[in-house]
Design brief:
Layout (H helix, E strand, L loop, with lengths): L1 H32 L2 H18 L1 H4 L21 H5 L6 E2 L4 E2 L10 H7 L1 H28 L4 H14 L3 H12 L3 H12 L1 H14 L3 H8 L4 H37 L10 H11 L6 H29 L4
Antiparallel strand pairs: 1-2
Helix pairs in contact: 2-6, 2-14, 6-7, 6-9, 6-10, 6-12, 8-9, 9-12, 10-12, 11-12, 12-13, 12-14, 13-14
InterPro entries: BP-dependent_transpt_permease, MetI-like, MetI-like_sf, OppC_N
Pfam family, one: OppC_N
GO biological process, one term: transmembrane transport
């Protein structure tokens, strides 16, 4: 009997602690869904997320499929006449099925676009998360210790980093460390945490003057507890806004690097598709090869921006 009463008491305590948080999340979701732009961004991101997780379910062929020859294993080679027809425009069963046509190697464009979504999502989310993990803590520390040597040191580092041109610095960094997806993510994160740091610092400078922070100091709370227990929860919504924007910027940066030839060519990506069409000289001849990867880059970057702008409206009480 005592055990049952204890379990009931624990359950009630759990509900009492989490119900306000769940209610806040529900209200925030309700405000977010009022922004059509944010909902459209979520839908686009959901589609690309499905492409990333189960590309074989959506792609018409495997990555090994080749026009005229079909799925492997196949021993035959393309004839000279067949090769002259590549890249082939969209075909719907005659002589093969390729809804968005093929490239110069006979690979299906739609298949490549779908399988490349995982690279874009991985780079965008990983780089955005890394930039937030660097920028948000530094912004919190800089703002809390405003006008001290700690703040000055962090801000001088930010000033130096702002003086470096983004793309040339990223190109040099990736070229020195090697061209692979991990180094590209690190390079983008190193150059994209600055806005996070500056904005979070400004918000922290305002929050540290609030009465609840003063009360925590009087109660004997340590600086670390005040920063990460009392101030950080109030800047997290703003950090999510910049995470979305950094993810979009990372995808665009990776596409630019791939177009310049600084990308991991062992992985499929939309930027590499654009680089291949430019290198092959088919920019003005094969529109079905050029438009899909460019449109995919535009849509996924726009989706992140849509979500970021909508979250900014939701988290900003003045709006």
């Amino acid at each position: 009997m005592a055990t049952e009463q204890g379990n009931t008491s624990n359950l009630e305590s759990f509900k009492k602690r989490w119900e306000p948080r769940v209610e806040r999340l529900r209200r925030s979701w309700g405000r977010f869904t009022e922004h059509r732009m944010g909902v459209v961004g979520l839908i686009i991101l959901f589609i690309f997320g499905l492409w990333s997780l189960v590309p074989e379910f959506f792609a018409p062929h495997s990555l090994e499929w080749v026009a005229y020859l079909g799925e492997p294993p196949h021993e035959a080679r393309l004839s000279g006449e067949q090769r002259r027809t590549l890249p082939h425009p969209p075909a719907f069963g005659d002589p093969f099925f390729a809804p968005l046509g093929t490239n110069q190697y006979g690979e299906g464009i739609l298949t490549l676009v779908i399988y490349s979504a995982s690279t874009a999502m991985y780079i965008g989310l990983a780089a955005g998360l890394l930039s937030s993990l660097v920028g948000v803590p530094l912004g919190l520390i800089s703002g809390f210790y405003g006008d001290t040597w700690i703040d000055e040191t962090i801000q001088r580092v930010v000033d130096v980093m702002y003086g470096l041109p983004f793309l040339p610095f990223l190109i040099v960094l990736v070229a020195i460390r090697g061209v692979n997806t991990t180094n590209i993510i690190i390079g983008i994160a190193v150059t994209s945490w600055l806005n996070n740091c500056i904005v979070i610092r400004g918000e922290t400078l305002s929050l540290r003057e609030r009465s609840y922070v003063e009360s925590a100091k009087v109660a004997g709370a340590s600086d670390t507890r005040i920063i990460f227990r009392h101030i950080m929860p109030n800047v997290l919504p703003l950090s999510f806004v910049f995470l979305a924007q950094d993810a979009a910027g990372a995808i665009l940066a990776q596409a630019a690097l791939a177009y310049l030839g600084l990308a991991d060519f062992t992985a499929n990506s939309w930027g590499i598709m654009l680089q291949n069409i430019q290198a092959g000289g088919y920019v003005f001849q094969a529109w079905w090869w050029l438009i899909p990867p460019g449109l995919a880059i535009t849509l996924i970057a726009a989706a992140f921006y849509f979500i970021g702008f909508s979250m900014e409206d939701v988290t900003n009480p003045q709006r």
